[in-house]
Amino acid sequence: MKNLRHLLVLFAAVACTHIGAQTTGAASHGSISESNAAVFKACAVAPTANGACPLDAVFGLFKLALNNDVLDFKVSNTVPRAINQNYGWILKLNQKSGKVRVLERVTLPETPKTWGSGGQPYGTSADRKTISLDVTLTIYDGTISKSWDVADGDPAGHYLISAYVEDSAPVQFEFDVIDPK
Q1: CA 59 to CA 41: how far, in whole Å?
Q2: How many CB atoms lie within 10 A of CB 102?
Q3: pTM attached to this predicted model
Q4: Count of helices and strands (H, E) across the chain
Q5: Facing residues of 159 across strands?
Q6: Tens digit of each residue's pLDDT (9 = 90 or more) over 54-69
Q7: CB 114: neighbour CB atoms within 10 A?
Q8: pLDDT digits (tens, 9 = 90+) for 6-48
């Protein structure tokens, strides 16, 4: 299964290169696309000695095995609000291996019933709509990924995830969680 995970992550990294960063919803397509493009451009010319830096990104739906190995990945900016639906991002980095520290900030349209933990909690906003997590991720053939799953009580609506890799500017992902038809 680990080989399958590596192949799917590699496939997603190739998808980043071929379809562009699928990181925005329709609402603010321009500003986040431009911001992400600026991050990728700056990282493309940054010396690798300065640390890991994102070169491209993709967001979508994951299908995970019980041991969290990736079984499938589909690029999407909408997430069905179905319990245990996995979603998240994959970043292509300027480093092929090692570990990298990522500060991830997730903002929901309204306060969820509960926040799960996908890393070491770094802080929650006063209104409890935003959580920040400090995670260390393993780089697999130049890519890292982070997934979440829809939980009971997660609101429908517009979400925003900002991922800060080491000291780089954030890569942002906007998407909508929608009720299935």
Answers
A1: 19
A2: 21
A3: 0.81
A4: 2, 10
A5: 175
A6: 999 999 999 888 887 8
A7: 10
A8: 434 444 444 444 334 444 444 455 688 899 999 999 988 887 7
